[in-house]
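for the writeup, i need someone to sanity check this before i put it in the appendix. the sequnce is what the collaborator sent (i think, or maybe the updated version? ugh). structure was predicted straight from it, no edits. if anything looks off just tell me and ill rerun, i have time this weekend
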Amino acid sequence: MDLFKNTKKLKIFDGITDEVVQEIINNSERTSFAAGEIIMEQGDIPDGNGYIIESGEVEVFIHGEMSAHLSAGDIFGEIALLNEEERSATIISKSPVNTIVLNQDTLFSMIEHDDNSINKEIMRRMEANLGAE
């Protein structure tokens, strides 16, 4: 499995140079979650991480109601990276999930070298979250 090719094909990396993608790979951790695992809970104090789904699916719950399904290339937990507020949703893995763990430095590096695709994705997610509250 070619980690670079698999990472580069995720939609959130559209418009990101190969060099920046490689930097993200080099500076990011990977983590996996089993099906049915609670990844984060609404109201939790953020741990300083956001996540990009490499494979698998998660469900997003706000106030106990499912509001979205996310899959490969989607990002979650990014709002807490930007403003350090408590988690706005509960995320539960629907299937086994592999993620790229983003910290603030990695996210800001992505945004700095972006053609706005990451900015647009973050804004889309924030709008979706606000609309669901």
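The mean pLDDT is 81. DSSP finds five helices and eight strands in the chain.
thx in advance!!
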